[in-house]
Amino acid sequence: MVLIAQKLESLGHKVEFVFDGEGMGFQVLIETRTNFQVQFESVSGLHRLPTETPDLVFISTCASANKVEKAFARAFSGIKPVVFGADGFFNHGYKWREDNADFWFAINEAHAQAIRALRPLLNPDRVKVVGQPAFDSCLELIPKKDLVRREQRLALGIQEEEKAFLWFSQGMPEVIEEDLEMMTEGIRSLGSKTPHSVFIPRVHPKLDKLKSGYVESIYTDLRHLCQQNGVRLIRADNLRGEELCLASDVIISITATDDIKNWLMGGPLVIHLMGPKVRQWFEESLLLKPPNYLPDVQAEEALAVRSKSDWSSVIAEALNPEKVRFLRRNWRAPETNATEITSTRLIEIANLG
Q1: How far is CA 245 from CA 150, 236, 325, in A?
Q2: What global pTM score does this model have?
Q3: Do 262 and 240 contact (CB within 8 A), yes or no?
Q4: What's the mean per-residue pLDDT of the chain?
Q5: DSSP secondary structure, 120-164, as one string
């Protein structure tokens, strides 16, 4: 949203930020030294509106801290255009967002179709494909993907014959236990079925909020598990997620924002973990529809493991060049960055009143 605001202000428009006091979004403005007015309060309802009545309210939806989002969506519904964006392939599903938006911004066409399917009463033309502005910097890597892959694998000591499996853990407490259980079984399958396997774990830092030291304890358990199953573990905490994606052969996650970076770049295939607890979370909390739930799985652009017995066959598919070509058949490099597209669409909607 900072990138969009900078673009809009460069065109002479005024932008005012409102942050949820339970979130960490305000730190982005501190880090980027952005001189926007910030209203920062922890609220249970709407405490104060912007200093001036806005022409448009744009909410970039968050998975956790969302009290301010709810309050502003409800306050301006039917008064001024309310636009929702989503930073991942699942944020559009949260129940409270069902009827509050006049427009939705989607990351790609599969995501747009998923948003429309959940909102049959919303005019389909009001779901706009704009990309993901936060990841525009990834686009510069597309022309040099092969070079980035070679350089990062060399830096990590990954040999040509080794297959690298990159795992992004979830940070949501509802599903973390099953995430770990499924990945445990996945490592066992790698050890028995895929020689020369390398496992690169990226554990969500949010998990330390569940209990102190949880993140490091997960890394310790994973290290022991890899040693027991003949899988080589590499810690690469200081590398950018997008570079790790390009250095890997397969990406594994329930769903994460790094999936989006990878899709935008046309990176390796993604395997989504969809065990019973995750499917329950998708259906009950996110209103996502079975059996495929996520837009990239529904569009046959990604794979899914639904039970522990699926691992062997799904890994084989993910490493099969013919299968990879099929699942990547619809990928195209973005022609315009998402910041430009999103800013243009916001101005168009604001002008409609």
Answers
A1: 12, 11, 17
A2: 0.87
A3: no
A4: 87
A5: TTS-GGGEEE---GGGGGGGGGGGGHHHHHHHHHHHHT--TT-EE
